[in-house]
Amino acid sequence: QVQLVESGGGSVQAGGSLKLSCAASHYTYDSYCLGWFRQAPGKEREGVAGITREGNTKYADSVKGRFTISRDNAKNILYLEMNSLKPEDTAMYYCAASWSVVVSLQPGDFNYWGQGSQVTVSS
User: Fold this and answer.
1) Longest CA–CA separation in the chain, Å
2) DSSP per-residue letters across 2-58
3) Which tens digits make up the pLDDT trace of 62-73?
4) Are residues 49 and 69 in contact, defined by beta-carbon separation less than 8 angstroms?
């Protein structure tokens, strides 16, 4: 069982930046693919960014060039650096872990989820 705890969310004005962190409590953390997802009220959960254990990444088109996913396997921490934030980025952000070795942005491919961290971007 992998436990994931997000932190770093908050409120920011459009054009600002935030960095989310996700701490994992499992000794085999570095064997998992990891991802960031978000869900706005009334909308489905969508994949934002994913990263394999080797560091290969994948991004949703809506965040390419603005968001950066990274992982520190020594510290069991996943990051999401978000720049040039827009009001449409407002959502609850979740980190997730997958047994798959292929990076994915599909929620159904992930096995463990954090509790979420709210990001609010005002115009």
Assistant:
1) 41
2) -EEEEE--EEEETT--EEEEEEEE-TTGGGSEEEEEEE-TTS--EEEEEE-TT--EE
3) 999 999 999 998
4) yes
pLDDT band at 29 (very low <50, low <70, confident <90, very high): low
Other beta carbons less than 10 A from residue 17's beta carbon: 11
Rounded to whole angstroms, the Cα distance separating 105 from 90 reads 18
Whose CA is closest to 27, among 47, 61, 3, 59?
A: 3
From residue 70, how far is each of 19, 52, 87 by CA, in Å?
11, 10, 23
Closest CA to 109 of 97, 94, 121: 97
User: Tens digits of per-residue pLDDT, 79-118?
Assistant: 999 999 999 999 999 999 998 888 899 999 999 999 999 9
Do 3 and 113 form a contact (C-beta atoms < 8 A)? no
